[in-house]
Amino acid sequence: MAKIFLYDTTLRDGTQGEGVSLTVDDKLRVLKRLDKLGIHYAEGGWPGSNPKDIEFFQRAGDLQLQQLRLTAFGSTRRASLVVEDDPNLAAILESGVKAAAIFGKTWDLHVREALRTTLEENLHMIYDSISYLKSHGLEVIYDAEHFFDGYRANPQYALETVRQAARAGADSISLCDTCGGTMPWVVEELVTMLRGEISTPLAIHAHNDSGLAVANSLSAVRAGATGVQGTINGYGERNGNADLCVIIPNLMLKLDKTVISKEQLASLTQVSRYVQELANQNPDPRQPYVGASAFAHKGGIHVSAILKHPQTYEHIEPELVGNERRVLVSELAGISNIIYKAQEFNLELDRNSPVTKKLVSQIKELEHTGYQFEGADGTFELLLRKALGQISPLFVLEGFRLITEKREDNGDPISEATIKLRVGESRVHTAAEGDGPVNALDNALRKALETFYPQLEGIKLSDYKVRVIDEKSGTAAKVRVLIQSKDEKRSWGTVGVSTNIIEASWRALVDSLEYGILCRGEEGKESK
Length: 528
Known about the structure:
The protein is of the alpha/beta class. The protein folds into two domains: about 5-280, Aldolase class I (TIM Barrel, Alpha-Beta Barrel), CATH 3.20.20.70; about 395-525, Double Stranded RNA Binding Domain (2-Layer Sandwich), CATH 3.30.160.270. The protein has helices spanning about 25-35, 50-60, 85-95, 110-115, 120-135, 145-155, 155-165, 185-195, 215-220, 245-255, 260-265, 270-280, 300-310, 335-345, 355-370, 375-385, 435-450, 500-525; strands spanning about 5-10, 40-45, 70-75, 100-105, 140-145, 170-175, 200-205, 225-230, 295, 325, 395-405, 415-425, 425-435, 460-470, 480-485, 490-500. α1 packs across α2 (about 50-60) and α16 (about 375-385) crosses α18. It is globular and about 80 Å long. It starts with a strand and ends with a helix.
């Protein structure tokens, strides 16, 4: 089977989508998850273009990635500069990456109107930029921007830009359907033609303006492209980019291509939902393969048939991509998924035990009320361990009170939390201030517990997100709070749901500290 290389641009192109935003910590977490998924290249951003990307590349250099090659993005040199003086290319070299993707103009319209230079100079810009980066030891992916539009307007010039990239030593050339308006049969025809023109490996970078980004990507592979660019969940500018969560299973299960391992494919749904949570995006339940409704069946003939044999109304087994089958009238319990997840935590669950069946019902009920455990492994593991009787609550809450006071028109509000709780036979009453009500609660709770649980030292709250679950309820809507915490060795997510944002935050906060103490306590046992 032919090997296809995956190039993810969620961290750059994906964040250009309307409403999509990732912090530096978010980007680093996504990068590690992409590495675990088996993605071959991930585009981190445009070094030097903004403070966020500068910090990202500085911190990403410290990560121990297993196979993923972090890639910096940029453009060919400016028309007015010699290549050695171009700040964009200098920033790529300074970022410390071993691979770079640079785009150049293929469409003569863009050369004249956007760059305001000559067609000949644009060819020099392509050659100079690629050869310069190659001379510094970088792997170079050349993005032929607007290739399909450029070829339609001026075939000979578009071909010459690609030939120039090949002469300069580009390691691969990605043909970009930048406006997303090309038909699949045109993509297949032009990729086939180019394979006869140059020996450089070809890739495809498709946008979804015509709803054909996935189809165009698959057409390119059928014609001989060995690389596919895209984003998780198809995030990207306008209508988005090609969705890797759809492309990957199609390549593996429909075209019989070698892409990632079967075990990695089975984590695809988790990855999709993890990125959704971090990007604070509402999931699309009808997203192929990984959407919540992708294998959902409702009433009548369909349900009757699916219970007799799943293949009657399913094109693949949902477990292949980490999803699950659901019958919407009488929900089928996902015991296998829970047992699989428990094994990740080194926990043994008996499929037929009353505890397991009760746990399945509990999880389904929690999901019904708004909980989601993708991105909240800490809460999920605590749920399992409590059901198995392995852990007890850290404390018994007697009550807490929050006061937020604004003393001046131009001053920031001050929040203070007072907490009463019992730890064993000891009763604790303490208070603390914070930058906001959640921060004040966090400070007060730590202050109350630190004497009893010294493991709290080193545990930090690193991120806090709120999502309104049922927007139509207005100010009475339920909210889901996702908290990300970390210590010196790991990070974990916890979740809380309530119609009261403080209560939802409290639940996620307690889980975050409880999980951190659990993990650090087990480390202490192992060291002894």
